[in-house]
Structures are given as C-alpha cells and as structure tokens.
Amino acid sequence: MQANTLIKPARQNGGRAFNLAMRALKRRLCPLIILALLTGAVSADDGLDWHLRALLSDSFLANAQIGLSIYDITAKEPLFSHNDTLLFNPASNLKLFTSAAALELLGPSYRFRTRIMCRDKIENGRLAGDLVLVGGGDPLVSGRFRSHITEVFESWADSLIARGISRIDGGIVIDNSFFTGPSLGAGWSWDDLTYWYACPLSALSFNDNCVDLKFLPGPTIGSPALIECDPNIGYITSHNMAYTLPPESSFTLDYYRIPYTNDVTFFGGIPISDTAGEIDYVSVHRPEIYAATVFGSVLTRKGVDLIGRITAIDDLEISRRADYSRPNLISLFTWESDTLGVVVKVIDTNSQNFFAEQTLLTLGAEKAGEGSFKAGLRIITAFLDSIGIGPNDLSMYDGSGLSYINAVKPRAVVDLLRYMSARPNFETYYQSLGNPAVDRSVRGRLDGIAGRERIRAKTGHIAGVSTLSGYMRGSKENHLIAFSIMINNYTCPRAHCEAWEDKIVASLLEVY
Question: Which stretch of DSSP H or E encloses residue 132?
C-alpha cells in the first residue's frame, strides 16, 4: 500500500483506537492545509471556516489573545466568531464608537463655533478693552485643508481690521469654559504626553495643539543638529542635545517635554546624509494660551497693535471673572468650522486622536452641558446602551483608544457596524473609514490582494495591541459584511500581526 494512502480507521475498544488514529491524521493534515492557505492554494469553495481556523493556528500568535467576529449584514447571519464575547483593548478601533455617536447625536452638518467678542466699543480704530476668544472645541484651526497653519488666524485678523480695529488697548482673554475637567484622558501613558497623539485638549486649540518640528543635520559630523519650529514664536523652550551623525548612522533623534511645562529637550542624532530632514510634532502645555499667542503674533504682523497681555479667564482673580460673562460682551463675529462629516473623516481615516477627543468633549458640552471626558463618555455609553451595546460589552475611558484601560468585545464592534449600516448617516460613516487602495492610514495593507478597494477599515495600534475592523462589500452578491479582528498581548513584530489580519480580510475577499 502506498505511504500517502489514507485509511479510515475502525472504531474499537470503546473508540480509543479511533481517537488516536484521528489525532495522527490531524497532525499529518493540518500543516498541509495551513501551507496551502498561506500560499493561496485553498480555493473559495473550501469555505471561510477552514481558511480562518487554519490561520488561527499561527505559531507567532500562540501566546496572544485573538478575537474575531464576522457578520453578513445583508443575509443577517453570522459568518465566523472566535472569542468575540471576550473583552479586548481596541486601540484606535474605539474611534468607531466616538464617530458613530457624534454623527447620530450631533449630525454630520454640525459645525464647531469660535466666538470673537470684546468688552468695549470700537472708537477711532481703537478697542479700549480686551479682545475675548470664546472657544467652542474646534479641532480644525490649523493648516489642515489650508495653505498654511495660520490661515484661519489671518482670516480672523482680517475680519477685525475690516471692522476698523487697528489697536487693542487691552489684551487677549480666553474663555475656555466650553470644556471642563482634565485635559488628558484616563489611562494615557505618561511617556506619550510629549507627542502629537497625546496632546492636551482645549476648547480653544491651534495646530492640533502642537508645534511643528523639522530636524536637519548640522554642517559637520558632531555638530549640533538643527531644529526648526513652526510657528517660530518661542512658545516652547528648546534644549538641544542632539548631534549630527556619520552618514551610515540611523536616525535616533527624539525629544521629551517635561509634563506641565513647555521645556523640551532634544537628544539623539540625525545622519549628515539626511539633507531632506525629518518632520515631527511636539505637544504643548496650555494649548489655549498657545493659540492666543499665535493669534496675537498674526495681529501684530497684520499691523494691529496689541498692548495688553494674553490670559485665560480662569487665571483672573475670581472677582474679575464675571466681567467676561456673555451678557457683558459684545459679539464681533463667529467663526464656523467645516462640518462634522469632515471631522469624522479625519478621526477614522487619519486616526487623529486629538480630533476624536475634541469631539468626545463636545458631545458632553452639547448634550450634557459639561464638556468633560466624564460627560462625553456618559453620553456615548447611553447612546450605545440604547442600541443594545451595554456596559458588559464595552468599557470606555476616552474617545480615541489611546487609553490602556479601554475594553470592548469584537462582537460589540460588529453590532455597532450593523446598526450604522441601517442609519441615514451610513454613507458618511462608511466613507470615513480608510480605503486600502487610496488612503494613507491604511496604505500598505492588503497590498497586491485583488478586491481590496471593496474594504473600508479602521486600524488600531498601541503597545501590544493590533486591531482592524470595518466593512467589506461582496463582489458576487454585493453583500455587506462587517468584521472585527483584535489581537492583544502579542510579542511578535507588529508587522506580523498586520500581515495576519490582512490574511483574514483576504480570505473574506476570496470567498465573497
């Protein structure tokens, strides 16, 4: 008998011999099946279940926790699940909940409003009192979608000049009361707070509450690295300990901002051959003061004399704060942002934490009268509870997924995606997710895989966490399929997790 001939074993001795024979058979077959799957040799006719169960045998992920939930929305039937009722840290997949709640509760046409007001009348080109900036949570006061980062402030300055103002005898006072409570989320890691993705929040914000950085090599090896700031107004205090390295060296330049200060130390190095330079962004302390300081510099550049200082109402003596209440102010004009639909696209496609958190606090301010993490989360969890996603399905501590104490079931993500697919705002929500064939945030995912343009997905990454959730449109019967893939506590390279997630999605594309 040939060695590769398979014999159906006989049942005997209460089935023990049968069980032993079946185990031996599985040991021989499973590696062959897995090899065939990973090389694309298994046809769609073999079924999705075989594809996915074989992929779950990946030895690189043997010590990780994996959750999968896949649902055919059109057919109204589950397709596959694995640990989908266990809680996982979702990382940025949590943004799916924030953006969905915002679209449903505020509406895609909602606009953030910043009010520019004053305390005194304008006479002979002079504003005798203070100019008051009343923040409304706008995350879009920046160079995003504009020619340069101060374009919005220049529009504000031009509006003041058009009203005859050439001199402000007072200063700039900031009303930041639209947001209250902590400006940082619970469970954010202290060593992230220097960087753009963990910047503090503020009702009045500018440039994602960051200073843009450009690193360049110095003229000679061993000379200090060059650090350029934009805007260059001296808001951060730089301590440059970074050096120019030999041409074959790796880029190691990094930086650290002392918490609750704007003192930033730069260290490491940049190769002398890196003449194009490297771009990064450092977060700032007191972003409302930063925004007003940059606006003040724009006014000065435009020829408006600003005599007084920049301060926030909260920094004033308590006895003076009532002077800046709305009934005591004169409205000059109101600036409106782009729509929430635009903001949600930045949240989900760009995975911009700052935008997600500003939206979370705005939900609290608009729907609970309190622009705080606590109020925003209360509004979102109440919304989720109303659609069947309860406290046992999700534990949410911020709006972006940066917190290490967030937890959600993969099935809850799919339940949310199912709910949104039937809502009037679905197209806005669907288009807010990344398209692997087009969008930078998911560029490099599913490369070379046919049909990847049929995917809309949200990635998620923090240390030890990799997630991918979204929609797939079938090519055969145009079914809409929702999926959520979550990996926690892995020790292999992150690239392996991403490649494994891509294989899961590729299996969906192949079968459907």
Answer: strand 131-134
pLDDT digits (tens, 9 = 90+) for 113-147: 999 999 898 999 999 999 999 999 999 999 999 99
- Cα gap 402→415, rounded to integer Å: 22
Tell me: the pLDDT tens digits for 151-183?
999 999 999 999 999 999 999 999 999 999 999
Displacement of CA 414 from its chain's centroid (Å): 19
Q: Write the burial class of residue 162 (CB in 10 Å: 0-12 exposed, 13-18 middle, 19+ buried).
A: exposed
In angstroms, rounded to a whole number, what is the distance separating the alpha carbons of residues 90 and 485?
Answer: 9
Residues ≥6 apart with Cβ < 8 Å to 257? 193, 194, 236, 263, 264, 282, 283, 285
- Domain boundaries defined on the chain: 47-107+341-511, 111-338
* Residue-level length of the chain: 512
Q: Which amino acid is at 417?
A: L
Q: In this structure, which topology does domain 47-107+341-511 adopt according to CATH? A: Beta-lactamase (3.40.710)
**Looking at domain 111-338, does it have CATH number 3.40.50.1390?**
no
> Do residues 457 and 470 touch, judged by C-beta distance below 8 A?
yes
Q: Which two tokens stand for residue 43?
A: 């046809």
- What would the pLDDT profile of 19-70 be if each residue is shown by its tens digit? 334 344 344 434 433 334 344 434 444 578 988 999 999 999 999 999 999 9
- pTM for the complete prediction? 0.90
